[in-house]
Structure formats: structure tokens, C-alpha cells
Amino acid sequence: MLAKRIIPCLDIKNGRVVKGVNFVGLRDAGDPVEQAKLYNAMGADELVFLDISATPEGNATVAEMVREVADQVFMPLAVGGGIREVADIKRILRAGADKVGINSAAVRTPELLTQGAERFGSQCIVLSIDAKLISAADEDPKWEVYVSGGRTPTGIDAVEWAIEAVERGAGEILLTSIDADGTTAGYDITLTKAIADRVSVPVIASGGAGTPQHFAEVLTTGNADAALAASIFHDKVYTVDELKTYLEDQGVPIRRQV
Prior knowledge:
single chain, alpha/beta, 8-stranded parallel beta barrel
């Protein structure tokens, strides 16, 4: 079994880290460069920045922030939010990001995945999927893709979309369960496994982390290659090191800084 990755996620608005609930009641939570340095020192395997500015000015600010972070930390950086065309991918990668997450724009224009992969390599293109369970309890589970920050249903089957996206060039899937997100009740194991078992690229599980056991479950039973979380780290419920120690004790292979 390959080593599993632990990935903190930071929401960015106008160049600052923010915290809130469903993007409501946002409050400033610090400087992204300093936060990135802290996570780098803690042993995080990667770091995801999610730009929630949704404005050209905010996107430009994120590019500058990525430059500053890339100069001072040495773990892979992924940036999502506001990516609409190949020029946006190029700008973020040139700023120092290793990967770019694409969500709504990929649904609107699936060719963007292929264009990005052909120009920059599949390893740089991450498809972000926000999925919600739509089947009844007595039916086989079925999930629908949502866009616009999880607010707009698309009618697209999440598993089929993941398969198509990989065929089009996506090199990784960042999978968020809308049902589990923010609950701290655990990742959606069924959803994660359904997609991880059908695609040939790594799947990052997101949404619902509350305890170290949740990470262990999604990385083993859920077949995820990595687990992403936000509040559990930001609020210092657990450190990355404490989590990795727990996973090691459970026999889950993880990475340690040399």
C-alpha cells in the first residue's frame, strides 16, 4: 500500500485566510504565508488553498499569495477556486502552485480538463467534485454533482463524471461529500469508495473529518489516497503529527519528514 497523504485546506478571500460556516459570517483567520509555514513545519504532505473571492481582483491576489508561499515552504501546493480557462491554470502554476483544482468550469466546459492536461500535464489537473446523495434509502446509492460552492445541482452522476474526467485528462480527484461536510461525523465512506474503485488516479477525500478514526476509515475502507480537512487542524483539535502517529499505530502507511 502506498503512503497516504494528509492535506490541510485553507479558505482564502482577498489574500487572507478566512473562517466561517458555509462561507457565511467569515472572519479573518490570519496570514496565509504564516499558516502555510506552520503546516509545513507540522509535517503536512500537501496544502490546498481554496480561493472563495470569486472576483478577478481576488484571483490576482491569490496568485501573488501563492508566489510568497512557494518561496517559503517545500510541500506541494494546490489551488482551487475561480479557475475558468487555460490562462487561469497557467497563471496559478507559474506563481508556484503544483496543482490546480477545477470544479464548476470543468462541468461547463469539460474540454478544459483535456486542454490543461495536454499543456501542463495530468499531474497538475485536479478535478474537484462536490457530490450529494440523491437516492432513497432502499435504492442503490447515487450521488449528484453540485457546482457553485455546492449550491447548484447539475443532474450529473458523480461516479460517471469522475470516470469521464479522468478519461479527459484529470490526474487526481478531490471529492467532497456535501452531506458530510462540516458535520465532523466522518467522511462519506460509501461515496469515496464508489469513486476510488472506479478511477485509476488518486482520490482525495474531503468533508466530515472529526476524529483520527475518521481518517483511518476513509484511507483504508474508503480506499482514498489522501484525506483533506480544515477545522480539525485550524481549531487545533489535532495536529498533523498527532494524526500521523495515530495512523501509524493503526498500520496505515503515512509519510514522515526526513
